[in-house]
User: Fold these one by one.
Assistant:
Number 1:
Amino acid sequence: MRIVITGGAGFIGKKLARALLARGTLMDRHGTIETIRTITLFDVVEADGLPDDPRLETVAGDITDPAAVKALIGARTDGVFHLAAIVSANAEQDFDLGYRVNLDGTRHVLEACRALSEPIRLVFASSVAVYGGDMPAVLDDGTILTPQTSYGAQKAASELLLNDYGRKGFVDGRALRLPTIVVRPGKPNKAASTFASSIIREPLAGQEAICPVTREAEMYILSPRRVLQALTHAFELPAAAFGMTRMLTLPGITVSIGQMVDALAEIAGERVARRIQWQPDPMIQRIVAGWPARFDARRGRSMGFEPDADVAEIIQAHTEDELGGNIA
Amino acid sequence: MRIVITGGAGFIGKKLARALLARGTLMDRHGTIETIRTITLFDVVEADGLPDDPRLETVAGDITDPAAVKALIGARTDGVFHLAAIVSANAEQDFDLGYRVNLDGTRHVLEACRALSEPIRLVFASSVAVYGGDMPAVLDDGTILTPQTSYGAQKAASELLLNDYGRKGFVDGRALRLPTIVVRPGKPNKAASTFASSIIREPLAGQEAICPVTREAEMYILSPRRVLQALTHAFELPAAAFGMTRMLTLPGITVSIGQMVDALAEIAGERVARRIQWQPDPMIQRIVAGWPARFDARRGRSMGFEPDADVAEIIQAHTEDELGGNIA
């Protein structure tokens, strides 16, 4: 089996590659367990820091170039995880780049799949950013999409295309709307949501972190571990499991920032939790309040997608996966 | 004021041009009544059969060519009615053409508007084809879009783009989802909905028509007259009237085919209504049953959009506008 991961130099892309290497197999669309022979990580830069494994291949290329994407996804490709994207804040800042990467890039992937003789499986990382503005208190997979960012609009439009290409039999696509990923490894980025990882990641590493929202702010979150499980599970699910639409909001957990910090204090001690500086920023507070926080993810759960049990589990997983079990 | 109409050789485009010529003015975005100085009808072919009026200009060009659209919508353009589209059946048949015209074409229009120094008004003809599949019994503007055709997916994606370009201040866009237009003048086309016009138009003109659905089938319809009113009304509405989203399903009326034929018999006589041959076609019956028939169009009504009073009014308008008041 030959798997392509776009956005392969990103942290989810690399983690997914490691997870697939560890698994060694994926179920194909005929229900057969197939050995993974090649994983191609495609990104603007070559993915680094990966294990020396003959099954891994890195390709530097531009998702906005249809020829590059056609060269990437060819007759020998059995499945694609399409994770490549310009993040929310960046897409808001650079309108053209956002559309080129997040919408046209997805279309190039769909077109490359369409050119193949069989409809291969395509798992697309969408986002709960397809929701915004006036929303019901609790959303579900029947809630109208009302993106309030270019990123959200691009993801929503891409979902429509994926669904239509699927309906036409050009690709066997599945779009997963990812909650806010907590704890992201690495450094803070420019996303408004970056603090949600920082307030756990930095204190655990012995560093201070600023929390720009109050304890009451709520978020809908999912750990990297669960995202990886969801991506492979979505790949392996039979098409019929999705029913009428290939779009799905992943089951996550709704937590207040207070709950997150309390869990941190319980696991790592008050000493660690005190490394958080509370500096409410009205703008970020407002942005976060505009995000959907509560989902009825019954459909996703019935399809076998599982959220984290609680924040403690998320912190534990981060400590194991990123810190070798050590808290500073 | 200089107005551009894309799809200007289509029947709505030409009717809109005539209506604008007759009005002579449009309210601009500052609330000022402005004289219409030029109406440019853009289409793949030059619009014909139009009055000899110095304000009218026809341009043959390709909406899929960004340069042609940029040349069309320039610094002197004050407003655009974007009606150009590949119809549903055609978009289903020619996948690439549908995306090029219905999605890329709309994007070219949005980009041309964005290049201007001010956000001009843009009225976009979307469609209730953005709905399909499993739907609530009564839809409203809060219902999730679930297109089941490429045409519907292209319209839904275009709406997302229009809304996003609007949010960014690049254009002052308004997307109207048109119900099935009854009575379309001219000849039957390949659309599955074509019979809805035929069963009124042909008998009134002394010809037989085939009705492929039973009396119980329901449709959500709007007359050409009301569509024209809606297009100009949407152009003139202040942006604030739209609230959070620029998408709107136009108020139409829900009628059964039986009601349509009964109204025809009442106005034109049993003799005329007997020109309808009832030949139920299971495939068309199924397609029509899959269309949304009932809308709670409260939002549109509150914004001043008006449906036809009843089928009688629609037949009357058709007789006046297309038959000079004469029934064969």
Note: The interface with chain B takes residues 95, 133-134, 142-148, 150, 153, 156-157, 160-161, 163-164, 167-168, 244-245 of chain A (CB under 8 Å).
Number 2:
Amino acid sequence: MPRTKTVKKTTSSKSAGRAAQSLPASSPVKVALLGFGTVGSSVAKVLATMKYSGLELTHIYNRDVERKRASTAAKVVPPTVQWTENIQDVLRSDVDIVVELMGGLDPAEGWLRKVLSSGKSVVTANKQLIAYRGAKLARVARQNHAQLLYGAAVAGGVPVIPGTQQGLGGDRITRLSGIVNGTCNYILSRMESGADYAEALADAQKLGYAEANPSSDVDGYDARAKLVILSRIALHAEIDPDEVSTQSISSISAIDFAYARELNCTIRQISRAQVEGSTVRARVAPMLVPKTSPMAWSHGTQNMVVTSGEFGGDVVFSGHGAGGHPTAVAVVSDILAVAQRCHAVELPVRRRTVTSEVVAPHYLRFVVHDQPGIIMGIAGALARVGINIDSILQHAGHPKNRLPFVVTVEPCLNTTLEKALRAIAKMDFILEKPVSLQILAPDEKDE
Amino acid sequence: MPRTKTVKKTTSSKSAGRAAQSLPASSPVKVALLGFGTVGSSVAKVLATMKYSGLELTHIYNRDVERKRASTAAKVVPPTVQWTENIQDVLRSDVDIVVELMGGLDPAEGWLRKVLSSGKSVVTANKQLIAYRGAKLARVARQNHAQLLYGAAVAGGVPVIPGTQQGLGGDRITRLSGIVNGTCNYILSRMESGADYAEALADAQKLGYAEANPSSDVDGYDARAKLVILSRIALHAEIDPDEVSTQSISSISAIDFAYARELNCTIRQISRAQVEGSTVRARVAPMLVPKTSPMAWSHGTQNMVVTSGEFGGDVVFSGHGAGGHPTAVAVVSDILAVAQRCHAVELPVRRRTVTSEVVAPHYLRFVVHDQPGIIMGIAGALARVGINIDSILQHAGHPKNRLPFVVTVEPCLNTTLEKALRAIAKMDFILEKPVSLQILAPDEKDE
């Protein structure tokens, strides 16, 4: 029982202090990697470079494993490692820690359940699995005195999860806002610099930031999984990913950045969750972000998370949210934590219902066929649901038969606004589905 | 032996998982506060508000304790707490955790040594003590199976220490740069907005950010202590605070901000440490920071730390670095970690020598009595030591008999530059000691 051995090492009264420094070389903590792709090979590279005493990479599982074994990335892997495409070789082994880097719910869930049930600990970067099944897997881990760590599942190399768990347990965090999808941030930053959506997406695909089917990123499902995980860690709220509404960035066009600039804003895919009583107000959507907000600092594939606490105020974490090496940093940090038997501060987590309703100012962009009565039509529809217009913006130089036209409205309930937009969408001068974006307040306070 | 009891709670095989959730109310972890000033009363407030199960505030020590006990801040303190001005009441008690918020080396060091020797754990916000004596106290803690946590000693409510320990152990951090003194950042931000030094300092004193004698803040000693602590945590380098050179911000004047703006920079007190072999390049000084650098984002009393890792790149932590409530968040987070027996990932720390030598571009500001030959004199002194001038800046509108005059130089060794500046300072047209500020590179990479 290797796990029991590990427990003894760090808690026997004689060696408690020393054990934490470096584990005795005579009984190394054994690590198996499931998946030898970009992150897996980076983890092997970091372990080979850092040479932590008392840690030993013993197994690498991958489908078509011989191809992986022959790759250049495999050169850093110690010759003693067992390469396998049979998961049973790992499940039946005496490894202490299984590092899962395959992604997806199946077969990862079943395998990790078996791993945890046998008392082995798990380190994973699998955000969908942790968002949907994290609470259940954590229960299995607890029942079997194993650890389940997933610092790499959110914001890659940015230590939001450990920083929040260990450093903000003394606060009551009421809101978190994040830029947690590097692909969207890359696309939107490129558009901020003048590219159009199709061009920016194509470049992201060429650079390996976006998949051939980019839906998971641009439509917000990737960010949503991360928001759900962060809500658990920071808000101590367990929420159902499927209840969190998402809005795609694919409807944003270059013209929106031009108008956003005029409002001293930029546009970012923002993931937000806010506790209100037993409800969590949560959504993932492209939003107008004031240039003075920390959220506007984040460029390219960078990630950023801002937690807002009752006592400590806003705390910002930012850095590289994706890529093999940054993600490997999070994975290896978690391996060290398991190996040194460092468990995280845990506070009670409660199941919460989700609402996507929000009262906020909004940016509305219409594409119209210019004709008399447009302002009256739009203003009328908004007035009928009690929404006040804040400003009307219209740049010169667009064709009359395809005119972008922007209205900003004072804080209103988004569901009420959507009702008005449905009415407006039916008006005969409207050529495209109107785009509606929440505008973040400069101090992010008055939502 | 209350500590042994705590060990059992989190490691006995039956209750390991549950214990981490909330400690059993039947055997609360007892907490004593040393110091009931701004931070101490905020800690009491947070504990009273959050009502963590299994934690009990049992003692408050302060000189002239009756005055504290009668204060409004004391109203949140449970009636069961023993208020005392006799430290023996705490030392001889059965408390599990002593929270030290008095500051200074003496008597804190002796008392905490006794606390740790008796197997009680310590949570402290005392940066000078931890910078100068942290390694020794940690040894005493280890020998007695106690914990010593000091997340509040650096950057208040910003979880740089736990985030780095738990989340970046998998990286090799080679450099850290920080804005870790809120008073200096407040003064310099005010000057950026047009205030002069004396006015900004007076305001900082009025607001309680700066002491009557502001030397510890403005001359860099406070930041230096924090830099030494961060070097231990992030660079795994133990360095002597007295070996780290400091440069005061008191020589910065409004005119420097005007010229900095022209160079698309601002001025911040920066604390930097960089590992090079067995040496750490470390200093605390006001520096020119490009407006595009994360360091320029930090305004007012905000703190910011950027770690640069070989694998994960730059990670930014920022937030409120001072004040009762944010500091209390760090203190209470550490209390929870001790109570739940969460120890930090520890990696070997090595004693390192310090150098303050740096090769970097510099900003030089002279105040001269205008006369022929000034540029020749200054350029000649720089040329004699092999330093190239990058630009010469001179704004109109200053009196000829007291003319500020700025030169920027290409990357050069600071000690060589100082030699040239000593020669220049003796020239008859020089009216004030020249000001020399390192210029940070936009990407912070080419130092």
Note: Residues 1-25 of chain B have pLDDT under 50 and may be disordered.
Number 3:
Amino acid sequence: MTRGGVAEQGGNVGRVKVGILGATGLVGQQLVSRLEGHPWFELVALAASERSKGLRYGEATSWMLGPDPPRSVAGTVLCGCGAEDLAGCELLLSALDASAAGELEPLLTRAGFPIVSNASAFRQAPDVPLLIPEINADHLALIDSQRTDRSAGFLVTNPNCSVTGLALALAPLHRAFTVRRVVVTTLQAVSGAGLSGPRALDLVDNVVPFIRGEEEKIESELTKILGRMEGARLCEAELRVSAHCHRVAVQHGHLEAVSVELERSASPEQAARTLAEFEGGLRDLDLPSAPSRPIVVRSESDRPQPRLDRDTGSGMSVVVGRLRPCPVLGLKLELLSHNTVRGAAGGTLLNAELLVARGWLEGRGST
Amino acid sequence: MTRGGVAEQGGNVGRVKVGILGATGLVGQQLVSRLEGHPWFELVALAASERSKGLRYGEATSWMLGPDPPRSVAGTVLCGCGAEDLAGCELLLSALDASAAGELEPLLTRAGFPIVSNASAFRQAPDVPLLIPEINADHLALIDSQRTDRSAGFLVTNPNCSVTGLALALAPLHRAFTVRRVVVTTLQAVSGAGLSGPRALDLVDNVVPFIRGEEEKIESELTKILGRMEGARLCEAELRVSAHCHRVAVQHGHLEAVSVELERSASPEQAARTLAEFEGGLRDLDLPSAPSRPIVVRSESDRPQPRLDRDTGSGMSVVVGRLRPCPVLGLKLELLSHNTVRGAAGGTLLNAELLVARGWLEGRGST
Amino acid sequence: MTRGGVAEQGGNVGRVKVGILGATGLVGQQLVSRLEGHPWFELVALAASERSKGLRYGEATSWMLGPDPPRSVAGTVLCGCGAEDLAGCELLLSALDASAAGELEPLLTRAGFPIVSNASAFRQAPDVPLLIPEINADHLALIDSQRTDRSAGFLVTNPNCSVTGLALALAPLHRAFTVRRVVVTTLQAVSGAGLSGPRALDLVDNVVPFIRGEEEKIESELTKILGRMEGARLCEAELRVSAHCHRVAVQHGHLEAVSVELERSASPEQAARTLAEFEGGLRDLDLPSAPSRPIVVRSESDRPQPRLDRDTGSGMSVVVGRLRPCPVLGLKLELLSHNTVRGAAGGTLLNAELLVARGWLEGRGST
Amino acid sequence: MTRGGVAEQGGNVGRVKVGILGATGLVGQQLVSRLEGHPWFELVALAASERSKGLRYGEATSWMLGPDPPRSVAGTVLCGCGAEDLAGCELLLSALDASAAGELEPLLTRAGFPIVSNASAFRQAPDVPLLIPEINADHLALIDSQRTDRSAGFLVTNPNCSVTGLALALAPLHRAFTVRRVVVTTLQAVSGAGLSGPRALDLVDNVVPFIRGEEEKIESELTKILGRMEGARLCEAELRVSAHCHRVAVQHGHLEAVSVELERSASPEQAARTLAEFEGGLRDLDLPSAPSRPIVVRSESDRPQPRLDRDTGSGMSVVVGRLRPCPVLGLKLELLSHNTVRGAAGGTLLNAELLVARGWLEGRGST
């Protein structure tokens, strides 16, 4: 089934049947919300932990995206995360936390499911694409290393929420000028920590300069994302990254202050132009979640700001501003991306759309 | 009059008579508060703008440091900032904003007043010390270049609130290992912008990635502070600094994420030891505002935090934590300093105390 | 021109030409935003103070509702607030502040403009409707007292932002059970104070228990809104209201804790039913800004909450929860309404739509 | 041992040996902090849950009151809450949560310990004083009903954190004018919920209009506190209270908007005078934690505010402002009290001091 095929068939008939793993969490909620009325996907299963299994979605979920979950799903009964629970799904979107994903995702791919995951458990596995469609769609070739026959399942992941925006902003600069070194300081929103995130006690009149595991993720995921396929293998990009991570009292939107060293120097104006012109090669695919511009460059002195800019491109665009010379590394800038949209659920969904558009789900029947 | 002299005379008799310029603003309030019961200084004049002149301090001031201004000053009538208004002062502490300082400070030094100023107007003047007593007390020699005879006034300044903490944390590293390059990202408190600071509209659920003039100040003041006297001239330190500044929803306490390149590399442990052992050479002077330790190093993974750590050493210690290797520049750390105390009023006061202890006010009568 | 007429004419041809007074402020921005694509109104003039006149809207406006103002208006040149500037407008929407409104609105009505105003200047004038369409559409009859001939202008106002939600929640109870006494405590969002609202310094780790003039407005406007027409005169409702007002660190959404004494007692369940069933009599008019339900009743123990519930009904529904017995006055509840939408721009617009639907603009040509 | 006795003995020798139950929580931390250097009490045991038992206090505690716990206790090994663990204590201060208190406090009183508790478990027991020394010191007579011989232990409690301030502000009005009805709306700080309090997700750009059990506590505790002893029995005050509770993004300080109906009406000026003159009859006892004024009345239009006023009287004074007529109940006002000080640890400590001063611990040896 190709995207074209979907379009031709029209209506619900040809939509890919998807299930969400971890549907009650913050990222799961964003997936539910963004699948509402999705032209390519039909949501057929909401899977949750054993504790919530059997409850209706509306009862089990502390819905945080507005007054109520969409009516179409509020009454849906939550299923478990076993293969038998998910029969009927052609594709799984995983919003599991790392430890659950580490256990469940391999079982489900072995059971034949293609999984597009937001979880960190397998992002660093050498045969798992760490995918941002505008940057490294060619990494999908790694899928073939995962499976021996086309009927088997496979796993594709999207990066950590604070890496996604950084990778998107750096990719065009890397292509044009080759990024050598990056120092990035993040100011991350509370929704990035999910429903069991930080206490108000820690963030009223305060900032916490630490997020467990986050700096390591930024430093290691970026080089994989920007890596190049050499034959069937992925070679990581040769650049060094240093991250300082902070949690601040913001609901959504990770802000990042970045200093970059480029191999071939670029003026702030050249960099701005390179970023603004970046298209990411998705235009012809008409992916429903792809923003009209992956990167929006702003020229004001005090932007981007989380509250004002996080919903740019329905939360799928990275907003870059304050491009200026860096006395130490050459170029500096500020970037913002919506952490639960582009940095999580929206990124997962865009990856799933790319899989469909590129035919990776073809030939698969309902499991 | 030396510090010793002050001590010998005891009581109020021998205390230096000081006036505050800009007494109603946030920094002025901190000065008022910290002069309450000060052993060396007697507050004899509270000077404000023409608009407030003649009002009582308690009426004219929107006091932000607790329920009420100290009783001893609440009823004091505000005077103007003219030399005649301030006759009776042996020393002026200036909490004026930059433009008022640019106009008034030269008039007052010419009228014979020594001024210790928090204002930015003359920080970059080549003959004006940009003083942090623990770091560059020898820069006081510049005073001689300012005046032709000992009866004349002079000006000493303290650095910008976000520079002070950075300079204190870097100075011992610079001495021991020579700092070459610094990338610093600040998360600055709202009190740093004074009484006419940012709107709640801009900081509820938001961060503003810009503070006018701040990055320039950090980049230029640090090299002056860390400079060396060569004869009567100050040679700036040869290091490069790049700053990214943010305003966050915190009352007090500037947090700074720093990556540092050292000429002679140091492990995080060596750096921690160097910082923790730093004394700053003030011990013998017994300056009343000097903290027992200028730098406090914490070993927890998530500290310093503004709300928890800003009052360390009565707000006069810089708190450093998260010392760890930086993949790009070699060493990284997080630091916090109280912006209206060490970074402003407390810094001003410490400078004033150093002047007294070193005898710079000797031989001056009341003007 | 009736609403039906508008519909029949279709397209832009038959839309009413409107101008916004005070277009750059927060309420003006909401008006601009909600007029984008409005089926009945065509925005033809953006009027601002003399200071901004001549600038393009996008330059003059510190846009707070997202990344950018709508493209259709960003390039529009701001005009002044004089009658000559506004020729071409068939209707004016006023988002002026009280003092500007006090001066300009009478000049403009005398010049023949119908004005629907959010300003407080004339809310208490005996011949000016203080209009909430679902509650007191019959108060429009007061317009006839304002003007001697049908060609003249007139003024209609909407209530204060914290009164609107309260009036909507109390009106059905008043009709069914007669409200006698009300004690209301508000927790109001910062956007209620407009672009020159409270400082972050006052709202980080703090609440301000005072909003100038607000308690008086609540106590006096409510009785007018709930009043009855007796012939051509409006008789205020005989009920007593006591208000306690607070400003809290919330962007949008005024939360109000209300205790009510009813003449004929009602159980929480009866009250809930009465509120949930309230329609407001607008259904047949199909006003574009009217929400499907003016009042949404929630049954959770911890709702409404500003962040979750303020956009209910596109910000035009009042959300009521926590209906329970009050040991003192009989019934208590919590309500929320979006202060810059239902409580300001959305309320103004709904009033304007009612005027059109009821034919109050008929027979008027372009001035 | 009487207070006088303590004073006479001087030094540590005569200090009462106290233990803290629940020492690692927020209220426990405040107790630890306020016992540092206490003239009457010597802290000899820090008791915690089985989980923390055996750890050093500094390791086991997530200290929230500044950089570090006092040095004197940081190295103390936590003991359990059994009678044997606490041998050596002459008095226990309980900062346990309600369920732990419900289980442990009876065991410990039976084992002979006097306990002064902040927990809610037994506040409503008819023979347990719900004590605020300035209001109802005579309720201590209830202790005699609790025990059959003087060697046995007993329990005294302090009220809920949002009730304490309310009771203190109403008590003088009740005495002078007889309070009949009260409607109170609270805006409560996050520290009121302890270390496992609300998520940042719920309080950034938001308010939660619900705190489990809180309204019930306010409505029931107030009448007990203001009750009168009739012989050996306590008769609750005959007044009706209605509470609306909210959690807001404030660290410390519960703000309460109160409307009061008095039997004998009082003008705002009379009420202000009555409150300001209130002494509470503790002056002669010189209790170390008693503030010089239990109630501080402010005359500004916008006070009290949590951040500015919570530390009035070292957090032990209730601050009252905005006294004005209430159109519904007669009088209205705003009050603030520090929830973890006067409303918890400070209140507990003051109660303990009263017990000592009144001789309730006399004749008891170390258990």
Note: Chain B has a mean pLDDT of 94.
